[in-house]
Amino acid sequence: MRIVFIGPPGAGKGTQAERIIEKYRIAHLSTGDMLRAARDAKTPVGVEAETYMAAGELVPDAIIIAIIAERLEQPDCQYGYLLDGFPRTLPQAEALDAMLAAKGTALDVVLELNVPEEELFQRLAGRGRADDQPDVIRQRLVAYREQTEPLLQYYRQQGLLKSVDGIGTVEEIFHRVEAVLDPYAC
Ligand code: AMP
């Protein structure tokens, strides 16, 4: 199963992603986690990414696309994966399509976790991560609205988009997620 997981910062993607990879036994490819690991290890990519992350801005497409291209070559990806936080821009989505086409594969489904913006700010402000300062949060929400939301239309046109309501308990939301993903499980 090859899934793209889209949702604004604070929608609860991380929590649902944990459940999804456990139930469907697929690899978890979180570009945010990869970038935080690179930043903490002070690799050249990590050092460059840090400036953007600290400002709540997106890291340049070329960096992210190179990271994902390398990650998709790892053996664990052959059984499927959940792309969490990637793609976040149209060029990233197009690059992903090209990578998959070159491998003779395609996405099964794009899952959107839908949470209204008013709710997100409250949730993020309570989380305490380094990029959860109020003006950085605001910038991350702007980046989502301006650069990532257009992807919903891109995937809707391809007939891949399924949206799930992200308001409720973790359990309630996971039931909605399962209802969408179960038909694609083998
Ligand atoms: P996340 O944990 O997914 O919210 O990602 C944390 C930060 O990493 C984001 O605010 C961006 O600065 C950066 N980042 C993660 N994934 C991407 C991506 N696909 N494209 C650009 N920047 C990204």
Overview features:
186 residues; alpha/beta; Rossmann fold; 5-stranded parallel sheet; 9 helices; globular
Distance between the termini: 8 Å
Number of strands: 5
Q: Could you tell me which ligands this complex binds, including any ions or cofactors?
A: adenosine monophosphate
Structural class: alpha/beta
Q: Can you write the helix and strand succession as a string? A: EHEHHHEHEHHHEH
CATH names the topology as Rossmann fold
Relative strand content: 5-15%
Main-sheet strand order equals: 2-3-1-4-5
Q: Please give the CATH class.
A: Alpha Beta
| Fraction of residues in helix | 55-70%
Number of helices: 9
User: Could you give a short account of the major beta sheet?
Assistant: 5 strands, parallel
pLDDT < 50 runs, ≥5 residues: none
Q: Which superfamily, in CATH terms, is the homologous superfamily?
A: P-loop containing nucleotide triphosphate hydrolases
Total domain units? 1
Rg measurement, Å: 16 Å
**What spatial form do the alpha-carbon principal axes imply?**
globular
Mean pLDDT rating: 95
Description:
By secondary structure, the chain is α/β, with parallel strands linked by helices. The chain has helices spanning about 15-25, 30-40, 45-55, 60-70, 90-105, 115-125, 135-150, 150-155, 170-180, and strands spanning about 1-5, 25-30, 80-85, 110-115, 160-165. The chain has one domain (about 1-185): Rossmann fold. The chain has a five-stranded parallel beta sheet, sandwiched between helices. Helix 1 (about 15-25) packs across helix 9 and helix 2 crosses helix 3 (about 45-55). It is globular. The structure holds adenosine monophosphate. Adenosine monophosphate binds near residues 85 and 86.
